[in-house]
Amino acid sequence: MNMLFSRLPAEIQLKVLSYCHIQTILSVQATSKAWKTFIDENENSIYHSAAIVHRFIQPDETLDEVQLTHPGRWLDDVEGWKDLCEFAQNVFVKPEMT
Questions:
Q1: What is the pTM of this model?
Q2: Taking the C-alpha atoms of 10, 6, 51 and 84 in order, what is their torsion angle to the nearest 10 degrees?
Q3: Exposed, middle or buried, 48 (CB in 10 Å: 0-12/13-18/19+)?
Q4: Which run of H or E residues covers position 72?
Q5: What sections of 1-98 are H helices per DSSP?
Q6: What is the mean pLDDT of the chain?
Q7: Of 54, 45, 55, 63, nearest in space to 20 by CA
Q8: CA neighbours within 13 Å on the CB side: how many for 32?
Q9: Is the pLDDT of residue 79 over 50?
Q10: Is 49 within 8 Å of 18 (Cβ atoms)?
């Protein structure tokens, strides 16, 4: 993990990650054991915040509410915020924006 970034409080690190594209978060996670551990330990928080920041969901929606209010089979395999973000990134974001 970058030493300067790691000196920031965890809340700030989580906020910064939530603004990254989903693919960037996945790439960062693959760069080191420290990043993988940090992201794994905070996965729900990071991806829930990312879903809000990238406007995949409304700020007050739970995952259950999203699955109930967005009909269709596209959410059938979504088991968590990470799954939702990965799917939404692939479906709703234009290629030139990724």
A1: 0.80
A2: -110
A3: buried
A4: none
A5: 3-6, 10-18, 22-29, 33-41, 43-53, 63-69, 81-92
A6: 84
A7: 54
A8: 7
A9: yes
A10: yes
